[in-house]
Specification:
Blueprint (H helix, E strand, L loop, with lengths): L2 E10 L3 H8 L5 H4 L7 E2 L13 E9 L2 E13 L3 E8 L4 E11 L2 E11 L3 H31 L3
Antiparallel strand pairs: 1-7, 2-3, 3-4, 4-5, 5-6, 6-7
Length: about 150
């Protein structure tokens, strides 16, 4: 079973309290997810800041015409430093996503570190090389632009 790693970084021109307040509220995920994913949070989370053990159910279309259930758990939270979400049920065999936040002179440096594995052995590896890795990159590119629009406009 092959484990893949992707890492993404971005500097947000805002203070740590403002950035953390936005990213620690799972209801804001809709603003960071490409519209073509038909992302829908099924769990009532309005006004709830994440906490370890929080379970979040979604419906998502990672590829056109394919609707899936996805359940993640927030496994760790260190206030204004990081949080980790892990898939409990969904399209991946394993999904471990770290979200790190660090105040710098330029703003808040956000770093995402993602480890994932796919089911289906060699077919999963083939799917990753043809579709999945690019789709993940596209999702994070969209998110980067959304963050720019939300925080970095002058």
């Amino acid at each position: 079973m092959k484990t893949y790693k992707r890492a993404f970084s971005q500097v947000v021109r805002a203070d740590l309290d403002q950035v953390w307040s936005f990213f620690s509220r799972p209801e804001n995920l809709n603003e960071l997810t490409p519209p073509d994913m038909d992302f829908e949070i099924m769990t009532d989370l309005d006004g709830v800041e994440m906490y370890p053990g929080m379970m979040i159910a979604y419906k998502v279309s990672p590829f056109k015409g394919i609707k899936m259930d996805w359940l993640t758990e927030i496994t760790q939270v260190r206030d204004k430093e990081f949080f980790i979400d892990e898939q409990r049920n969904g399209p991946y065999r394993m999904w471990h996503h770290q979200h790190h936040f660090k105040q710098t002179a330029e703003g808040v440096k956000m770093t995402d570190i993602l480890h994932y594995t796919l089911p289906l052995g060699i077919l999963g590896r083939l799917a990753n090389s043809i579709l999945v890795a690019k789709r993940i990159d596209d999702i994070f590119t969209y998110r980067n632009k959304a963050v720019e629009r939300l925080f970095n406009q002058s």
